[in-house]
Amino acid sequence: MENKVCFIWCLCLCLFTYMTSFPAVGMIEEVDAVKRQHGKHKHGDVKLFVFGDSYVDTGNWPTSMSSSWKEPYGLTYPGSPSGRFSDGLVLTDFIASFLGIKSPLPYNKKGSSVIRDGVNFAYGGTGVFNTFVNQPNMTTQINYFQQLLQGEEQVYNKENMSYSIALVSVAGNDYATFLTKNGNNMEDLGNVTNSIMSQLELNLRRLHGLGVQKIGITEMEPIGCLPKMTFASSYKNCSESANSLSRFHNQMLHQTIEKLNNQTGTPVFFILDVYSAFMSALDIQQNHPGNSNFENPLKPCCMATSSEYSCGDKRGITKKYVLCKNPELSFFWDVIHPSQQGWFAVFSALKPSLSPLM
User: Fold this and answer.
1) I want to staple 324 with a disulfide (CB 3.0 to 4.6 A). Which of 49, 115, 191, 301 is the partner?
2) Largest Cα–Cα distance of the chain, in whole Å?
3) Residue 78, preceding bond cis, omega within 30 degrees?
4) Nearest to residue 229, comparing CAs of 191, 294, 282?
5) H/E element holding 268?
6) In terms of DSSP H, where are the helices of 114-188?
7) How do residues 96-113 score in pLDDT, each as one tens digit?
8) Going by DSSP bridges, is the β-strand pair 318-319/40-41 parallel, antiparallel, or unpaired?
9) pLDDT for residue 21
10) Distance CA 82, CA 60 (A)
């Protein structure tokens, strides 16, 4: 029962989520040096469109409503809060760099100009369906995208969509919402997964129908290794029961993507194996971290001083959180989100499998 309650709290926290000098720019330049040739394609400039949650959001939340706009978020890059749920760069930034383009502007910051590198529509805390945060779910995010294609603005046309890529990271918050609304009853999680997959399939079909040429969908991370879960073991062990939900979701995701590719007759949809990338970066062996490059892989850098607070909270001028001395030695930034260095480790594990996006 204790593990079950901890698991529920871990998932629910995703809904309300919230370096020491680290060579952030150097990281991006390192990837660019290898992949810069991909910024141009025979059909035109690469464009990246991003949909989903806090793992890919680069600043869509209103500045007054999210802890991602509070210190110490953004400490490593760009040096102040940027709306990212980390101390610096997140997965979107590294994928964009791999493609040889700048990270797409958040939708709320796009203005009225033509956006060369794409747009980021992701909002932290959101899901395939509505969650407890009052921000646009994936369907609404795609509506925004469609308006840029077919509305009065017509920012993009068929020609400059000919080499377009979508990055999708979604679903964890849908599970949290269901469990909260249903009194932590986990018996119907199979049906929930089926519902998520059905709607996700519709959303992915719609993106392709709107002209997106290639679509990468992230697996669910090993949620049993998030610090909110590992706290109970003094950040020593991952929860196998929680990780089993991630694996089940990912198994169903693979089946859905295989079905979609069979029906399109060409490999349009690709899975980014985030689960394995996390496990590799953390060097998890039998639910224990091994010899990774991180001091304590399952412990966050930014920690609240008590359970009623979270990273970034203050009471008056008093900080209700503490920071580690070296963020670059922490895989996790807070109890849910990787640090910039953590995301770089995940990206490095993913990089050999990213060629289908090109």
Assistant:
1) 301
2) 59
3) yes
4) 282
5) none
6) 138-150, 172-181
7) 999 999 999 999 987 755
8) unpaired
9) 32
10) 10
> Cα separation of 76 and 82, whole Å?
11
Residues with catalytic roles? 54, 334, 337
Exposure class string for 276-286: b at 16+ Cβ within 10 A, else e: bbbbbbbbbee
CA distance 330 to 111: 36
265 Cβ contact partners less than 8 Å away, ≥ 6 residues apart: none
Question: Taking the model in full, what pTM does it have?
Answer: 0.90
Q: Among 74, 92, 100, 82, which Cα is nearest to 22's?
A: 74
Structural Rg of the chain based on CA atoms: 19
Q: φ, ψ for residue 45 (rounded to 5)?
A: -75, 140
Phi, psi of 336 (to 5 degrees): -125, -35
Residue 176's identity, in one-letter code, is A
The pLDDT of 65-93, averaged and rounded, is: 97
Distance CA 126, CA 53 (A): 5
Q: Is 300 helix (H, G, I), strand (E, B) or coil?
A: strand
Secondary structure of residue 153 in the 3-state scheme: coil
Q: Can you point out the beta strands (E) in 268-333? A: 269-272, 284-285, 288-289, 302-304, 314-315, 318-319, 321-323
Cβ pair 332, 226 in contact under 8 A: yes
What phi and psi, each to the nearest 5 degrees, are found at residue 301? -75, -45
Give the SS3 label for residue 185. coil
> Shortest CA distance to 220 belongs to which of 260, 266, 268, 256?
256
Specify the DSSP element, H or E, that contains 85.
Answer: none
Listed in sequence order, the residues at least 6 apart from 216 whose beta carbon sits closer than 8 Å to its beta carbon are: 95, 165, 166, 167, 168, 270, 271, 272, 354, 357
Q: How far apart are CA 56 and CA 64, in angstroms?
A: 20
In sequence order, which residues have a C-beta less than 8 Å from that of residue 181 and are 6 or more positions away? none
Q: How many residues does the chain have?
A: 358
